[in-house]
Amino acid sequence: MALSNRFENVGQGGWVKKIVLLLGAILVVAVLAPVAIVPAGSRGVMTTFGSARDALYEPGLHFRWPIAQSMNLMNVQIQNGEGEGEAASKDLQTVHTKVAINYHLDPAFAVEAFKSVGPSTDILAQRIIIPATHESVKAVTALFTAEELITQRTLVRDQISSLLKQKMVRHGLILDEFNLINFAFSKSFSDAIENKVKAEQQKQQAERDLQRLQVEAQQKVVGAKAEAESLALQRLQITPELLSLRRIENERAAIAKWDGKLPSVTSGATPFINVDRTAK
């Protein structure tokens, strides 16, 4: 039994050695490989014993001297980030601002960025983008009152974006998009703005009601004036000649309806005498 366990331990130890040797071989091949690969979305910067060359390597396969040279990758894809900070408005109101940006490294500046900052775009964000964003937000916010920051939000955003682009482009960074996510003020100031908006809305409603009442009153005056003018016109049209003509027309209508027979009795008057002319 002991001999069998010894053979099993020897066998396991052999597998471990094989795995270690395989990993070592892969590492040696990787280090001594005469080629370097630059993937899509990146640019390569070749260093020789740590010294960066000025040449920029496009995506693809490139030859290098093993051990002496290394290919460093610089990400040029669009990246995003968010940030928050405090600033002061023109009327000295404290403003809490939240922004979001999309940016990328200009491929033409990959070598310069590698030399001045390092191989990671995260370092670029920490050292350049975040401070530049905070500075731009504070500089533009100070030009507007707290109320203007709300009512002229688009103008504020465009000015911050323009200033930030100028700061980033000096370091080979391209600002693709800038968004103001939110402006937040103190509770007392927010309540004051809300009350002002409500008062303005009530004022506008009162003005609309007044205009409606004025229109209705004008319509009544116009209607009464038209009615009075119509009555006056009718009075002017009723002349003695018109009355005489109407009376004649009524008499003619009565004669036209008469059947030729006289009434046998008249109220309160002498009855008609039926004269027989044949009695003569």
Write the layout of secondary structure elements.
Blueprint: H1 2-32, E1 35-38, E2 42-48, E3 51-57, E4 60-63, E5 69-75, E6 79-88, E7 94-105, H2 110-116, H3 121-141, H4 146-151, H5 153-169, E8 173-184, H6 187-237, H7 240-257
Antiparallel strand pairs: 1-4, 2-3, 2-5, 6-7, 7-8
Helix pairs in contact: 3-5
Uncertain residue ranges: none
- Return Rg in Å: 52 Å
Order of helices and strands: HEEEEEEEHHHHEHH
Q: Helix- and strand-based class?
A: alpha+beta
Strand content: 15-25%
Main sheet properties: 3 strands, antiparallel
Can you describe this structure?
This protein is an alpha+beta fold. 54% of the residues lie in helices and 22% in strands. It is built from 7 helices and 8 strands. The chain has a 3-stranded antiparallel beta sheet, with helices on one face. Strands 6-7-8 form a 3-stranded antiparallel beta sheet. A two-stranded antiparallel sheet has the order 1-4. Strand 2 and strand 3 form a beta hairpin. The chain starts with a helix and ends in a 23-residue tail after the last helix.
